[in-house]
Specification:
The chain is α+β, with helices and mostly antiparallel strands and 361 residues long. The protein is built from six helices and 19 strands.
Length: 361
């Protein structure tokens, strides 16, 4: 049975989604457990009982250098116009489980007080869509919730990104759940369907970069007009990886996002200072380190990476900001891969600057 075009049915979809409340499923916060390299945390994936054919909404599992408890990481994108996906479509439930859940919600919504007009029509059309093969342009209907194909695929549904602050963006994946056969790609009209690139962006969002502290000489307390050397050793300044994976019956994707440190920018915390180099951007050396450790006898040399304060900090300190820029790329299932915007992570260090005391004889 073919019905009205999709756009007409869509007029009541928002009301239907609000009535059901659980059609668009939010990504949960997971309990974390240490990973094998003790860096970051892996998340425990929620799932159903495979023996019974019951599958709960499939969750994304994070591992590697990621924030604990599934929370947002500490990377800031250098591209202010780039954001992780606010929502996406992902495997939801098998046919029998979907029928049990969806039919109950349709019945509950239809019997709600005052359910008339457009919302009532939308509910009726949705029931016919899943039970009586009622379809519309580019979207075929289903007979008895596709129960005859149970185990051969899954219904997919919208998933909110809980870290997206914009409510409208977060709730923009509002198409009704749709069927995808095992091993097949989602229909092309669902542009927000989860892909390795979406997983890579989410791994970026959850990535936890090391809180590397710049080594200073003199350390913490320096003198006016005395060059302060700054450096980062290779051992403390290394690339990190975060992985996001999704596994469902007949469907599995993974993506690993790699962050490689490329530069350090120093901001003295006062305009009365000079940086080395003048731009404050210290580039990475061939051996992976930044700057050069201070060595005895180099007091008269200009440091390749450092600061010279031109006035005292008095009774307080200057807040030296050291911002590391990370070059970020990703690889994923099927040989997919590419670049993501550079990421930055900023560390603050308190620096005391004293006047050089002269002794008159």
């Amino acid at each position: 049975m073919k019905g009205v075009v999709r756009t007409t049915l869509g007029a009541g979809t928002a009301a239907l989604i609000l009535a059901f409340g659980t059609v668009v499923i939010g990504a949960p916060v997971h309990a974390a457990e240490p990973t094998g390299n003790d860096q970051g945390a892996g998340t425990k994936e929620d799932g159903g009982r495979k023996g019974s054919g019951i599958y709960a909404a499939v969750r994304i599992e994070y591992s590697g250098s990621v924030a604990p408890d599934g929370s947002k990481g500490n990377v800031t994108s250098a591209d202010v116009n780039w954001t992780p996906p606010p929502c996406w479509y992902a495997p939801y439930l098998g046919a029998k489980d979907f029928k049990k859940k969806m039919s109950a919600e349709i019945e509950e919504a239809a019997s709600a007080p005052g359910m008339t007009g457009t919302p009532a029509a939308a509910i009726g059309q949705t029931k016919a869509h899943y039970e009586d093969e009622y379809g519309w342009t580019d979207t075929p209907g289903y007979k008895d919730y596709n129960v005859a194909k149970d185990g051969e695929g899954m219904f997919w549904a919208g998933v909110e990104n809980p870290d997206e602050p914009d409510f409208l963006k977060r709730n923009s994946c509002t198409d009704l759940p749709f069927w995808v056969d095992n091993g097949e790609a989602p229909p092309p009209q669902y542009e927000e369907a989860i892909t390795p690139e979406v997983l890579a962006a989410l791994a970026y969002q959850h990535m936890e970069l090391p809180g590397t502290e710049v080594t200073l000489a003199p350390a913490q307390t320096t003198k006016v007009n005395l060059p302060t050397w700054a450096w980062l050793d290779k051992a403390d300044f290394h690339e990190v990886q975060a992985t996001a994976a999704i596994n469902a019956p007949g469907f599995a994707l993974t993506a690993t996002t790699t962050a490689k440190p490329v530069s350090l920018k120093l901001e003295p915390g006062t305009p009365d200072a000079e940086t080395y180099p003048a731009s404050g951007e210290c580039t990475i050396n061939d051996d992976g380190s930044i700057g050069e450790p201070y060595a005895k006898g180099n007091a008269d040399r200009t440091p390749p990476c450092g600061i010279k304060y031109l006035r005292s900090s008095g009774d307080g300190t200057f807040d030296l900001q050291a911002t590391i820029t990370w070059e970020i790329a990703w690889t994923g299932t099927g040989g997919a891969g590419g670049d993501l915007p550079d990421g930055t992570f900023e560390n603050g260090q308190a620096v005391t600057v004293q006047e050089i005391q002269a002794v008159n004889r």
